[in-house]
Design a protein that fits this description.
single chain; 125 residues; mainly beta; 6-stranded antiparallel β-sheet; 3-stranded antiparallel β-sheet; 1 helix; 42% strand; globular
Length: 125
Amino acid sequence: MAYIGYEFYYDGTRATLWGYIQTALINLGWELHDSISANVKVYKSNGESGNEPYGYVWIDAGTSTYIQFAFYQYWNATTHAGVRVRYPNNSATYGQITATYMTSAAPMIIAGDKNLVFIGHPINS
């Protein structure tokens, strides 16, 4: 699958950002692996080649303004638990994406493929 990018301008709410993240991941080729609740999902990908070990991203959109995420080497969809967690920036806390400042003046972008997904804001010309 080729690299895909999305730019969006909506209302700056967490719910809007959560909808875009889910749609983008599926369109980029990631698979929904575990639908824990309406706001907590685990997606997986085994890379563009399809020959890599699966990698899993746990995403929790249940907070008021931001979305949390972490990465796992393995995820059990029956027990809703993963092993070998990696947090962003080699830290010991979940990563966070905030939608508070997402406006038409400061849009966000989601881009990537089955190997890498980038989410960032704001984008300026």
